[in-house]
Design a protein that fits this description.
Distance between the termini: 79 Å
Strand content: 15-25%
Number of domains: 3
Number of strands: 19
Radius of gyration: 25 Å
């Protein structure tokens, strides 16, 4: 806090220091940002006051870092940007955080209201508050220094209470320079008390859910990333193990229980989705990632009863009827269910659990041989088989994963053993989260990070390898280089000289990017080379990029969601019509 004195008045403070003090008072001690007008000095002052300020090369990557920081810590991740274009770059990450239910606050400098409202052509003029409102959970503008404390408090509470999400905080440049009495300024600050209070489920709702569970012959539990975010790990595990029910973790819920757990049904996904008769959803949503609960993968329509745990009542019945809605936070609901089960709870029928386990063991054994091949160039199975062992030997490491085929294969191949150790593209399936997520994971946890990237996905945020080197973070980036998007052998249908729309430069040397900034860059052509390079990087903690050469023919269009591609839909329709003829 500044303390300037004159004969006429006592110590004063300003908007810069009031904003910094408000963040520190609430334990928000890390800022992810891109400096520029009018927030450059705000970053400098914050760093001077003990806040860790990490400067990125692009606002979207800084925003993705703040979003994943919110997921990992349950406190709002803070992203700070300049006005207009910088704000818009950060807005993508803010919307991504909101969609995934992660607490984040985007703080952006902005032009002055009197000029913006008259559209007089100010520097980077834009009505940022109006643009942000539809894309986040809440949006606020602070115009007076004495309101900074309450404005920050409102943003924090909005971000973490109920279903978490993104909040926008608009900071006109002139606000930062406003001055006021230091003592009055200190009194104006607000420490948020109990921003995310527990929400206890109704007893009748718990009893109804138990009744539905008792009726099940083939029950299934689906764990979503909401269960991982809740950090009620012991309660979730107790609920699963006491019930005896097979469970299926969504990608970022992997590790809530080890993927090698006897009740894990990941390797029998198709079977349990289709054959189950009662499904308990724990922090998971019946969105497109689960085919809205309606597709053929779920078996006959209306053949299942769903129990859903969610803190947002409006989530219930969003796609199909929920037989037993449980509204509350994960910890409180799990605790209530455990208590209601009592000491004499009858676990899931052995006939069902044995059938699921037999399917899991068979599928795992069949996959094992594929993961041990020494093909050169490597296919996805060979490369990911090597990385699977890296994580097995280092269960505390955090895996960041994005791409099309790279994401789809890794999700099913690499086992996770502890909660919140897998970070990926989330609900939107958006590419470009890799380097921001990796940086935040390293900063917030201090653990080594393995970022497994498709070459296309890496391109969205690849320049942040300089940021990784600048802060000397323990991150190993593995780029699966197959010379293109999906596959590296695309053809220009016109026969012209331009490469295919999905092709990249053949034989690109991504490893030299890391070397250019002082990190370690290596090319791996075989599983053995990949294993040695990544193991050394993970153990040394040095910023490393391993350019991993993948067979250009190994991938497939759109990974495992090709059904969403209109080309695939048309092809399927033509094939069906032809079959009828």
């Amino acid at each position: 806090m500044t303390e300037e004195s004159t004969a006429a008045q006592g110590p004063i403070t300003d908007g810069f220091h009031l904003l910094i003090d408000a963040l520190k008072l609430n334990g928000l001690n890390t800022i992810y940002n891109v400096p520029g007008i009018p927030i450059t000095d705000l970053g400098r002052y914050a760093q001077g006051e003990g806040i860790r300020v990490l400067s990125f090369r692009h606002e979207q990557n800084a925003g993705n870092a703040a979003a994943i920081a919110g997921y990992l810590t349950k406190k709002p991740g803070i992203c700070m940007t300049v006005s207009a274009p910088g704000f818009l770059n950060g807005l993508t990450a803010l919307a991504h955080a909101t969609t995934n239910c992660w607490p984040m606050i985007l703080i952006s400098g902005s032009s002055e209201r009197e000029v913006v409202d008259l559209m007089q052509g100010d520097y980077e003029e834009m009505d940022q508050l109006a643009i942000a409102k539809p894309l986040c959970k809440a949006a606020f503008r602070i115009l007076h220094a004495e309101d900074i404390g309450i404005g920050v408090a409102r943003a924090i509470r909005a971000a973490v209470s109920g279903r978490p999400g993104g909040v926008y905080l608009d900071i006109p440049g002139s606000l930062l320079g406003q001055v006021m009495d230091a003592a009055e300024g200190e009194k104006s600050l607000v420490k948020v008390i109990d921003p995310a209070p527990a929400q206890i489920p109704a007893p009748d709702a718990v009893a109804r859910a138990i009744e539905v569970l008792i009726s099940a012959r083939k029950p299934l539990i689906i764990l979503g990333k909401g269960a991982a975010y809740a950090q009620a790990d012991d309660l979730v595990r107790e609920l699963v193990e006491k019930s005896g029910i097979p469970y299926l973790p969504m990608s970022m819920a992997k590790g809530l229980l080890p993927d090698t757990h006897v009740q894990s049904a990941s390797a029998a996904r198709s079977m349990v989705l289709k054959e189950s008769d009662v499904v308990l959803m724990v922090g998971a949503r019946l969105n497109w990632l689960l085919s809205h609960g309606k597709s053929k993968q779920w078996g006959e329509p209306h053949s299942k009863k769903f129990i859903q745990i969610d803190i947002e009542p409006r989530e219930m019945d969003s796609n199909i009827e929920i037989a037993a809605p449980l509204v509350g936070d994960i910890g409180s609901v799990a605790s209530a269910l455990i208590d209601a089960m009592g000491d004499d709870w009858q676990k899931a029928p052995e006939e069902w659990t044995s059938a699921v386990r037999t399917k899991v063991v068979g599928n795992v054994e069949r996959m094992a041989s594929r993961l041990q091949n020494n093909s050169n160039p490597m296919d996805y199975n060979a490369a990911l088989g090597a990385l699977k062992n890296i994580i097995k030997d280092r269960p505390d490491a955090i895996l960041v994963n994005e791409g099309a085929n790279t994401l789809d294969f890794a999700r099913s191949i690499i086992d996770i053993y502890k909660p919140r150790k897998r970070l990926d593209v989330g609900t939107w399936g958006v590419m470009g989260i890799g380097m921001g997520s990796a940086i935040a994971a390293a900063v917030e946890t201090g653990k080594p990070v393995l970022a497994v990237e498709g070459d296309s996905a890496f391109g969205f945020s690849g320049m942040e390898v300089e940021t990784i080197c600048r802060y000397n973070l323990p991150i190993c980036v593995v780029v699966f280089n197959n010379n293109g998007i999906y596959r590296g052998d695309g053809v220009n249908r016109s026969g012209g000289e331009d490469p295919a729309t999905t092709s990249f430069v053949e034989g690109a040397r991504y490893d030299l990017m890391m070397q250019a900034f002082g990190g370690v860059g290596i090319t791996a052509n075989t599983p053995d080379e990949l294993t040695r390079a990544v193991a050394e990087a993970m153990d040394s903690g040095k910023p490393t990029l391993v350019n991993t050469v993948i067979d250009p023919k190994a991938g497939k269009e759109s990974g495992n969601i090709g059904s969403l591609n209109p080309t695939s839909i048309v092809a399927d329709a033509r094939a069906a019509a032809k079959a009828q003829v």
